[in-house]
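Q: I'm a student working through a structural biology exercise. My instructor gave each of us a protein and asked us to get a predicted structure, then write a short paragraph describing it. Mine is Odorant receptor. I'm not confident about reading structure output yet, so if you can add a plain explanation after the tokens, that would really help. Here is the sequence I was given:
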Amino acid sequence: MQAKDSVSKSGAVSARFRPADGGSEDKDGDSAQPTESQESILTWKGTSQSVLKHNVRYLCVLGAWPLTRSRLYHLLSGTAFLLGVMHIGVAVFGAYLYRDNIEEMTLMLANLFLVCSGITKLVLFLVYRNKYRQLVLVTDEVTTRQRSYCEGDAALKSILLDSERLTARLTLFVPAYIATLSIVWVPMPLIAYDERRLPFVQLPMVNQVSSLMYALLYVMQSVPSLLFFNIGFGVDAFFASVTINAATQLRLLFLRIKDLRIGGRDAVKLSIGDDIRHERMFGELCTCIQIHQQLVRYLTFVGKVMDPIAMTQVVFSVLIACVTLFQATYSADSNAAFRCVGFLPTPGAQVFLYCWGAHNLMEQSAAVSEAAYSCCWVEASGRFKRALCLLMCRAQRPLVLTAGGLLRINRPTFISLLKASYSYYTLLGRINNR
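A: Happy to help. First, here is the predicted structure for Odorant receptor. I'll explain a few features afterward.
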């Protein structure tokens, strides 16, 4: 994305942006035609320099992000979707059979909601895959623009590297966490019970089928559950990485504005009346304004892309937390209760990734306005002060992400969702005690 700014004689600054390919600007910031870089993102190698490469490749392995044009990959995605739909059908059937047993039914519902969440995210990623590809490209573009500036400052470079390490660790944490839970969830029915039990959805006829059929049913429940658990959590980690990187870019912009002085960042003593140094300071401010406008447009696009995914996770996290807490509290089966206690932090952690990232983003965007007070604006030229006022006015409007266009995503919202889950849990408890 290239910025084109103009400065009037009065010192007023205006900036507008055009796509990197020089095409016309779209309302959503989309290019009318895919660029060469957009085509390269279709390959595994094309993501090697991306700040989101770990997230993209992880989702590719799961069948949610095609990095190849091969039809075999689309067959993989279709097979995963089919397995998920079949599992949902079995779960609904099992919940119907045990509709009078609230303990068994809630255990099945927890698994059903988890798989439904993963399938919904898979469908959204496959249907709107061009938007998600573009999101990765624009994220890399925004990051690259400030990376060159950070190379000359060890402190700024450290902030950028810390952000990249955090996103990488977060992405690698997801499969490690799910693998740990799988050790408890998947083999437990085989170890803890004398009778035949399935891992997630119990079926009455399981004791009448052959050992081969029992093994097939066991695998058919385990594979879709773990697959869509990985997809769902992987998508959450992807958007958490996007917000972490965006907050880092705002933090770098904050420090960049704060360091504005006559003569540039290496200047020590102010030289009033030096036109060249005043011009250099004003030019740096114009660059900061362009970057801020680019970040505002970028985060508007992030909000539109993330909106349905975040709403999906909010709804299912509340439902999963409710039924899992019920199982952990009221289940007469100690093994099922133990499994639910181990799983209980998961729905909260998934929605917390959105709330934590978006809240941090909101704080960093508000801090940009405060940075203007810390720069050397007193000795600056009149047009510098006027341009700085424009930046301050825009930065005072916080950048807020929403879920479904209805719910602000921040830390107070996370607390509200926990309260909502507990309210539904209390309602289930009252129904169970009747």
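A: Here are two points you could use in your paragraph. The radius of gyration is 26 Å. Residues 41-433 form one domain. It's a good idea to check both against the output above yourself.
Q: Great, thank you!
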